[in-house]
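User: My collaborator sent over this chain with a note saying "see what the structure looks like." That's all I know about it. Can you take a look?
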Amino acid sequence: MRGSLVHRLLPAPGAPRLLAASWLIKTLGSGLYLPTSVLFFTRVAGLSAGRVALGLTLAGLISLAGAVPLGGLADRYGPRRTYGVLLIVQFATMAMLALVRSFPLFLALIVVFTLAEQGSSAARGALIAVVGEGAERVRLRAYLRVVTNVGVAIGAGLAAIAIDLGTTLAFTVLLLGTALTFPAAAIPLRGLAADAVVAGGKAVPRSSRRQVFRDSRYVWVTAICGVLSLQSQVLSFAVPLWVVNHTAAPPLTVSVIVVLNAAMVVLLQIRASRGADDDARAARLCRRAGLSLLAACVVVVFTRAAAPWLAVLLLIVFAVLLTAGELWTSAGSFGLSFTLAPDGAHGQYQGFFSLGRGVATAVAPWLLSTLCLSDDGGRGWLALGALFALVGALMPVAVRRSPLRVAA
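Assistant: Without extra context I'll predict from the sequence alone. Here is the result:
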């Protein structure tokens, strides 16, 4: 009985479990860094909030340009080797960021760090592609998303100690501790078998290294998944401001929504991803996600004029619908991003796929402020919901497009 439970909760022994261990260490570092980085750069490094925001924005935009070329390195040199090198680059830049006291040095280092993070994301995707096959590949990606939530939660809990202390030493030690998680995450990868080192077991021909740009089906799928991924920014950006400024619900409701979202992801993501290795089913999951997100946007409109108790109840319903859309978006994206990519080119394809979410993250603050946080009676929420439903409905059409023909 106990063994059966462990079998259901953990990925398969060997390479998948080693990859999960690496992922947990890496995301623990993310949990340490995300809540404290801006505080470190403003309080310890002495940079203004405006300059920190400018540097992070520029780094994010520059990193998008490096997504496909860096992903191509994983196809050429193998995802494990590429990922390991990029982890070391992140370790070095993060350690140096702990010593930053000027904007030019901060900008240079954060650009390198963000580029390496973009490349490591593509390399991780390629590594999953060669570690898993078919349904196991999608299940592993779903499991790693659960691991991400767990790792970030643990890291954020530890980061709270530094935030509470508020001293230069506490923030510096935490940033250096974050840096150490990168080489630590590389250690489990050393146990991967040789056949998991070279993507697809073969190099990508030179003429095909940018073939993803000619694969119109993959381009459409990436764009649609990018739009659907706006739901994550709805949770992190729009929801706190909406609850506090536009509803009578107590501010604590924001924390309830976040905890409910995290719990649903941890408990349901693997189940929601079943069958997503089939293109048609993965496309239908994205269509279902669009409808669920539409329903969430409709519900949240009614929280504006509701009594406090009713606003809380409606916001919980909204959170469930939003998270359901998130689960189905992630599941469909997992499946399509892998199954529609040809063997030997997963690095560049995963790098390109990350552009959809990257662009969505970049435009989300402006878009959500314009649509959802204005005094328009909720029409912006309805427009956003209609957008989710429309692009979700287009996914089965996009998947049925003719695939790219690659010359031998």
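A starting point for your reply to your collaborator: The domain at 11-203 is CATH 1.20.1250.20 (Growth Hormone; Chain: A;).
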